[in-house]
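Technical note accompanying the year-one report. For the benefit of new consortium partners, we illustrate the data format agreed upon in the data management plan: each record pairs a sequence with a structure-token string. No post-processing was applied to the example shown here.
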Amino acid sequence: MASGSNRTTRADEVRARRKIEPVRRKPIPTNPSVRTSRDAQNASRVVSRRSYTSTQYTRSAATRNRSRVYMPTGTQGSELRLPALPQFRLSWRILSGLIAVGMTVLLFMMSTSTAFAVSKVNLSGGIRIPVEEINQKLDLQGESIIQVVPADIENQILEAFPDIKSVEVKVRMPAVVDIAIEERIPALLWMKDEEMLYWIDQDGFAFTVRGEATLPIRVYANSEPPHPLGWVDPQQMTDEEKESAEPLPLVDPAFVSTVQKLNGIKPAESPMLYNAQRGLGWVDPHGWQVYFGDDDANIDMKLLEYARIVETILDRNLQPVLISMEFLHAPYYRLEP
């Protein structure tokens, strides 16, 4: 029997063989394509240890969302467990859908219910225009309040009533419409052949004579007033052009200011005149007519020159029928009609 010192183990044999034979190691490839294929092979060996299916996730989520309910039985230390109930959570999509359905039902009820039919129209700011005339034009009585569009009503009023400068419409639930208007203030009363044609406000807009007004200046003319540049007669426009065109003043606002300025200069007892060829003027107290043109340009110089002409005419004992001051540097007077 061999002693313990002479025994050779498996490890000793391996060490002895390594001393005799060189270690053979697998060379590392230098080609990148080889390394890439080897890495791909190693990566393919990685597998998923565990996978979760949608059914398992849904089941676990449903289990977590269930609330447990316990009821006491009256005996100390004991209680009764009821079947688990799922917890219901209201999402934003469901809530928005319920709101949309509710609003649709509400609008349908408002459109068909008589409680929301227009029963009263309040008019404020009107002086010459009666509320009955506006109600007759709009015909809002009995119409559903949700079908009343304030912007459409405002445009309808402005088109139907040129003597209204601005309008504001408000709707009050359940069935009231408030209309606030601002009427145009007449500045001129245009008369032709002793007939009142229309009023003209400070902005040059013309509108029908309605009621009474003490402020406008009476202008006795032999024609219509001078129109501003770019003015087009509405009677020569087509229906499509009338709908798309914005309302334009009949008279240039500067012309209205000229009438007001000359009205403060002329003799108080003399009427204001307008001639299509010579412009604005009046009847002088001496008996002749004098005209100063359509604008107030150089009006102060014209008045001084007119005073000298009158002094010269009176010194010569002349009686003209007309004096024209339309052109500052070319005034003239006429002795015969």
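Partners are asked to follow this layout when depositing records. The CA atoms of residues 69 and 82 lie 5 Å apart.
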